[in-house]
Design a protein that fits this description.
The chain is an alpha/beta fold. It is built from 14 helices and eight strands. The protein has a domain of 158 residues: Rossmann fold. The strands form two sheets. Strands 2-1-3-4 form a four-stranded parallel beta sheet, sandwiched between helices. α6 crosses α11 and α12 crosses α13. The two termini are 39 Å apart.
Length: 380
């Protein structure tokens, strides 16, 4: 199979069609809202975790009845899909409270759709480093697991969880390798294709996804490194999966060398330890080890560690600049921006900040900004 055909397999994955397929196979499907929810527990219970990251094709309509106007449209469109029937076949919904929008939204989901779709509440600890923070996280995961086991109709063993951890660690490793290979072969993997490959992981069983991705990685590794004549950037933000927006990168000969995106590399950067015998503890320790994310507490935030980490990523990937996709009404991203800009300016790294949301239909301003930025990078 050609590389193009392998990539097309990922690009063809449609969440709504996948949900119908899994249900036709007699599987139970659990919706998982962004992000850091332990999908491993759903997999361990013999069910399918289905990522929900809003939609680029819908408008906020009925969800307005339940949401404040300053909620990001990722959350609002997730609820919209639960209200308009798109996700009616879900058997349950896991609602993390990792940000100031998802925290109240967890209750909005219960009020809006709780009668037809059970909502499983998940509260991560703010201070995840201390022993008591790890214990709190483990207790939360135990509560989630108990509800999943009830839904599945059978007990979920520690052995099941440990197996799921291995499956998910393998998937994370394959995605990290793909990101590096996509940079090395950016003449073969364009920004739209890169996004499609990574995004598909949310809508497939991880073992099946990883098998296909490993095959793609092997094909890419066999190629000579690209002789790229364009420019390279690192992308940052919560989500940047809109093909129309990414087409502007292609039109201006811009490749994505690496990313600091929540839906992409932030979500698979850290593995769960496989040398811990207690599966729930291993997952809690994984959350404790997570770092360099604006949604996570950083006791050393005065040192601007996260921004410095982004700068290091740009330098290590060979990128010439950063494109920041600023999600409308994402307070954590907006509050961090001055510190990120400070680190980028100090390192002499150019960047452009684009205001984006999933209801964008006119990309004229974004096209102008990216084209001008490409010209700036070309002159370096």
């Amino acid at each position: 199979m050609s590389i193009e055909a392998r990539i097309q397999e990922f690009a063809a994955i449609n969440p709504a069609e996948q949900l119908k397929k899994f249900k036709a196979q007699g599987k139970k499907v659990v919706g998982v809202l962004p992000y850091y929810a332990p999908e491993e527990l759903v997999y361990a219970a013999g069910m399918v975790p289905m990522g929900i990251w809003g939609s680029n094709d819908k408008e906020v309509m009925r969800s307005k009845e339940y949401c404040a106007t300053f909620y990001c449209d990722i959350a609002q469109l997730a609820l919209e899909m639960l209200l308009d029937g798109t996700m009616d076949q879900l058997d349950a919904l896991i609602t993390p409270t990792i940000c100031d929008t998802l925290r109240p939204m967890s209750q909005n989901f219960r009020v809006a759709v709780g009668a037809k779709i059970p909502c499983i509440f998940l509260a991560h600890p703010q201070n995840r480093f201390a022993d008591w923070g790890v214990e709190f996280c483990k207790d939360q995961y135990r509560s989630v697991l108990d509800k999943l086991a009830f839904l599945a109709g059978h007990d979920v063993t520690n052995k099941d969880i440990l197996h799921a951890i291995k499956v998910y660690n393998a998937s994370r490793a394959a995605r990290r390798e793909f990101v590096k290979l996509a940079n090395e072969h950016c003449d073969v993997v364009n920004p739209i294709q890169r996004s499609a490959v990574l995004k598909a992981s949310y809508f497939m069983l991880k073992d099946e996804y990883t098998e296909k991705l490993v095959a793609l990685n092997e094909e890419l590794k066999a190629l000579p490194a690209a002789k790229w004549n364009g420019t390279k950037v690192v992308t940052s933000g919560i989500i940047c999966d809109n093909p129309k927006l990414l087409q502007i990168f292609i039109d201006n000969n811009i490749a994505i060398a690496a990313d600091d995106v929540a839906q992409e590399s932030r979500s698979f950067r850290f593995d769960a330890p496989e040398n811990v015998d207690d599966g729930l503890l291993a997952l809690a320790l994984q959350f404790s080890s997570m770092d360099y994310d604006i949604l996570l507490y950083d006791k050393f935030s005065n040192k601007n560690r996260r921004a410095e980490d982004v700068v290091a990523k740009i330098k290590e990937s060979g990128a010439q600049g950063l494109v920041l996709f600023m999600q409308t009404f994402c307070d954590p991203e907006e509050m961090e921006y001055p510190y990120l800009k400070k680190a980028l300016d100090a390192a002499g790294i150019p960047h452009v900040k684009l205001g984006v949301n999933q209801q964008m239909r006119d990309f004229g301003q974004a096209s102008t900004a990216i084209q001008a930025f490409a010209d700036v990078l070309a002159m370096q």
